[in-house]
Structure formats: structure tokens, C-alpha cells
Amino acid sequence: MHIVICIKQVPDSTQIRVHPVTNTIMRQGVPTIINPYDLFAMEEALRLRDRHGGEVTVLTMGPPMAEDALRKVLTYGADRAVLLTDRHFAGSDTLATSFALSQAIAKIGESFGTPDIVFTGKQTIDGDTAQVGPGIAKRLDLLQLTYVAKIASIDLDAREITVERRSEGGTQTLKSKLPCLITMLEGSNEIRRGSLDDALRAARSAIVKWSAADAGIEDLTKCGLRGSPTVVKRVFAPPERAEKAEQIDTTEKTPRDLAEELIAGIFLRQPALKSELAFCGDA
Amino acid sequence: MLSTNRESPPPAVGRAAMKKELPEQFKAHRHVWVFIELERGKVHPVSFELLGEGRKLADKLGVQLAGVVLGPPGEFTWFAIAEAFAYGADLAYLVEAPLLADYRNEPFTKALTELVTTYKPEILLLGATTLGRDLAGSVATTLLTGLTADCTELDVDADGSLAATRPTFGGSLLCTIYTLNCRPQMATVRPRVMAMPQRGNNQIGRVIQHDVPMIEEEIVTKVVGFLSDGLSATANLAYADVVVAGGLGLGAAENLNLVKKLAQTIGADYGCSRPLVQKGWMPADRQIGQTGKTIRPKLYIAAGISGAIQHRVGVEGADLILAINTDPNAPIFDFAHLGVVTDAIRLLPSLTELFTHRLSPHSRDKLAN
Question: Where is the Electron transfer flavoprotein alpha/beta-subunit N-terminal domain (chain B) (predicted)?
């Protein structure tokens, strides 16, 4: 079988700093990582390949330096990496991103065999939209299975797949068909450690680099800013709260004293809570 | 999407000035729609929260507010419509079909897309639930229109455009996003981000029933099972009145028992900050913050949580935030109402004990068993 995984190189959000004056993200020195949710998709793809045979192609759209993220996925054992990079993609929103990626996936299909499954993570940690996966599915007319916690079974001869999908208030079991697009839920599997062989192979592997034209994109008005119906009009820092927390003085007080004061403080501010909390009595 | 998914920093704000006159084919688009999410005999409360927001937008625009209901024939679907009226909808669009009994992407995308192309709303709002996000992405892509995820604020500007504000880069920044030259303008909002509006007494309004021809044989994906969490949408962390949560300051996974014990004593629900989920100390559905749950309790007790921006985004709607942290400079003290600089591991047992002392004998017996 042939599986495509879409990944994204993202800034490590735990280390993001915002410039206090210009309100822009200070990318200088912020390390980049593979979007953590994508690793669960990658692992699932590699397991399917290990079990059923075939190939895994990893795809990303991004600046030239996104090559590092692709190489990392090669060290985990992916067979091939494709970097879609072109200045025409700058400023793409989710609609334009899903357009470019779907074109590249179609091209991957022509060049290396039609994919049976396209995997993405649940969402990215920088965008947090969860919209690109469904966008790709729609554009390629793939059956869409989002928030998948487990692939219960797959039958390549019958082209059938059964998955457990996280839904509101429970887990849905869905029976569907290949080809499909799956977005994987975090924690759905244990991510492997790359092997030395794969690391050596990855170091020697060439990464396929495609421009928009290479990926068969003829209509550049569907890419980047021009292809993005959404526009960022204003970027600003979250407003500061006018008042900081009122601090309870801890000098020479036991935890019990502090607890007394806290409970008194709670009821002073929210008297209605007296009847809410599972106890009675005067604070 | 957005900006956050942009391949380069968002362009300087000049492009918003590129707002041209809306193309002719979109000029007929009017009214605000809210997708009413049904789940196994309940309406997801996020639908009512959105009707509250949608009402404000519709009033500013001087247009009508509609609830959109897709469901199987039967009493419950009509109950959902009546509830939409009670929460402020002027009219309802309904697609009734047996194959809409359980959510599946194919028939729901087809039905909602067809309603939009037929009746042309200018704004379409959905809950940012697993269902809403699955559906919104497909519908927006089919219609080739803009979709803004996880909005925290919705407004209309002077010329009637939807201004959708959302956190970006994990909440470090907020950005206001417009959908230019395309309709409808679509947005999703997470449960509990918007306040629940007052429920009115009116349960009557105009219902427009639309037939979308679909047959089960043509729908590839089948629902072959459902395992309920045993919790309704309202009986979970997001809708709890009192929440206690723990963070890295607790030092060890077993100290989460202190959080759970306090929660149990005062009848609260419990959760944690993101790093604890990453460490595997608590399951992901207990995570509070930008990528976890948004909460709006009357009381929120944060124990050993530093209050990174990602966390702040999910708790700001709480009426009273009480923060316990050893670091006097922890950001949580910038947005909590009441703070104490001390070790939560020492304070939590005292809090629990003191609350226990005040329990009525009846509750004490219950806890003892």
C-alpha cells in the first residue's frame, strides 16, 4: 500500500516570545519542531506499512528549512520525502494550504503510485485550526475520518477500513473505504525510536523538492495570499487584566490559617457559592 | 484558517485595505445562521451559546437569525428546533432524513452545503467540537470560502463584515480575521467560550423544510458502533460550576490525588494544565486551555499552575480564579483574582480538611462510604 503523511514544521510554542512593541512573533532563535500531533499520524502510517508492506511518503509545505523536519521523519523510517516550497505559497490560509497540498498529493500519486491513505495530525500547534486535513479530503474527494483514536481493521482486498473515532460524548466506530484521509488523535499510539539503519539511510536520502509548477499547479491565484479568502486585519497582544490577583499574606501562617483565609476570601467575593459547594456552614 | 497556519508571518495589515466591493454573486447573501448540533437525544449547549452571539450579530446587521437543524425524522429533531427558537432564533432550516441520525461527514456536508447554496446566509457559525470542526472544514472547502477556527470574539464592522478574533501561536497573540470577497463568512467557536444566553419562552417560529435527496446506499461510511463516555456534554469539565486543576508545581503524578480529593470534597470537577498531559499524568480530556477544554466555572482553583498564555485562554471566563503557586512572579497571578504564594502540596490538604469540617453530617456520611 502507499501512504502519504502530511507534516508541518512549527515553532516550539513553549518557547515563543512576542515582541512587546510590534506584537510580532520573535522567531529569532525559536527552535522548530515537527508538529507533535503529526508524529502520531506518522507512527500509524509506518505501522500500517510494516504490517501490510508498501511505502510511506512524507510531504510538507513550507520554507526550504522545513527539509530538516522531513529528514527527521526519514530517520523514523519513511521511504520518501517531498518538500513543496515556493514563494507563491507565502501567506496561505487553510483553504490555500489545502489546495497546494492536495495538488502535491495528486502529483505524488502520479509519480509514485496513488495513495490508499493520506494521514495528517489532528491539528497543528501554531495554527490549531484542524481545517487543512478536511480541506485536503474534500479537494481530493477522499473519505474523511477525523479524530481517529484507533484503526481497528483494514482489508486491502476489499478496500475496507474500520476506525474508532473520538466524537462528542463517546467513541464512534466507523466502517469506510479506501482511499481515505485520516487525522490521528494524540496518544493514539506509542511513537517509535528511529533505528540506526534508518538514520544512516536518511542522511543519504535525497529529498524531492517541488515548486508550485513542479507540483502541477497552473493557477497561482489559488495559492498564497491571493488564494486565501481570510485576511488577518489586526494582530494584538491579549489585554492585560486591570487588577492583579489580591495576594494573601503568608507571613508566619500555617497552611490551615491560609486555608481559612482563602475560604473566607472565596465567599466574600462569591457569596452564592455557599449554596453551590457541597457543604454548609458559615465561613 | 488562518493566519496561524500561514507559511510566513501575517502580512502587514495593509491587505485588509484590499477589501473590494463584494462580487455580484455574493450580494444576495443575508442573515446569520447557527448550526444546531444534535447528539444522541441532546442539543449540544454550544449551539445555544452561538445563538446568543448570533443574535447580537444579526441585530447589529438588522437581519434574521436562523438555526440549522439536520437530523432524523422524529420528535427530538423538532424539540431541537423549538429550543433554537427559545434561545433567540427567528427561523429554522431543517433537513430531515433517516440517514442523518448519526453524524457522518458525507451526508451532513452535502445537506449543509446545499442549504447554504440555496438560501445564502452571510454568516455561518458552528461549534468547534469534533463534529463541528469535521463538518465546517468540508463545507468551507466545498464552497471555497473562508473559515476562522476557534474564535473568542465575533463582531461586525461598519460595512457589515464579520470580524472574527482568535488566539494564534497558542494564545500568545490575538488576531482579527476577515473573509474578503467570499460568502458565507464561516467561523467556529469552542464550547464555553461564549456565555450561555437567557432562555426565552418563545418556542415558535418559521421552519423551512428542505429536501436533500440522499440514499443510504450512496453513503460509503457506516456507523457500526458507539461507545458512550456515560457523560452528557453538560456533565463534563467544560460545564462544571467548580473546577480544581493541578500543574507542574505539584511535582509528581501522585500529588494529583490532592487535587482530586479537594474536588471530590467540594463537588467539583478536576483537570490539569498541558504539561501534565504530555507527561502522561492525566488523560487529554482533562486538559484545560487553548488545546484542551475551555471552562467557565463560578470558582476555579489552580494549584501549581504557572498560567502560561495557553492556559489563560481556557480559564478567563471563570467568575473567580484562585491561584496557588510558589513563584510570586508566575503569570497566573496576573489574571487570577485571589492568590497565595505557597506550596500547593501543603495547602491543598488543609483546604480539603477545612471544607470537610464544614460538610453537613449527611454529606460526610456520603463521603465516608
Answer: 32-223
